[in-house]
Amino acid sequence: MMQTMRERWHQMSSRERTILLAGGIIVGLSLLFVLVVDPLLATFDRLDRQAARKEKDIKELALISQEYTTKRDRLAKAESRMPPPDSQFSLLTFMEEAAATARIRDRIAGMQPQIQSLPQGYQETAVDLRLEGVQLPELLALLVAIDQAPYELHVRHLQIHPKFDNPANLDATVRVLSYAKS
Predict the structure, then answer these.
(1) For residue 182, what are the CA distances in angstroms to 43, 77, 84, 91?
(2) Under a CB-based contact definition with an 8 Å cutoff, are residues 91 and 125 in contact?
(3) Which of 33, 54, 78 is the last residue of a domain?
(4) pTM (2 decimals)?
(5) Distances from the Cα of 110 to the Cαs of 41, 94, 129, 137, 173, in angstroms?
(6) Looking at the domain assignment, is residue 85 inside a domain?
(7) Angle between the 91-101 and 136-147 helix axes, to the nearest 10 degrees?
(8) Domain containing residue 152
């Protein structure tokens, strides 16, 4: 077989040999491109896309990490302001004392405590305080007393209505929340 190919090669003119060599080189380069270069280029493109996606993921992870750190610090700060489990802090008692400090204890129309267990071992205590016939400075004194509490308290709801017979007197509903570890 090789012998016959050599004989044919010698029988060809130089022009035919040049055309055959050029065709062989073109076919060889085409095969090289199709079998080696093109797959390498496709792999490089795929790796570039993956690298870009991974960089985006890293940036997102860094943002999530910052958010987590911020929220963890906020939680630690909030937990430091919670009453310790062995303390005898009662939101209901505190609200009565705050009303006495603001000199509006006699204007309390109702106090309703509510206790709710939350996930992750926390307990939410809420007190709904209804006041009738208070004046604005007295209500502000109560809110200041709540703000200056030894533990973290939140005024979740505050509703104020003026009395129709005397607009200087107000009816108010205040919902105060405190949190503690269960």
Answers:
(1) 56, 17, 10, 15
(2) yes
(3) 78
(4) 0.62
(5) 77, 15, 6, 20, 9
(6) no
(7) 140
(8) 91-181
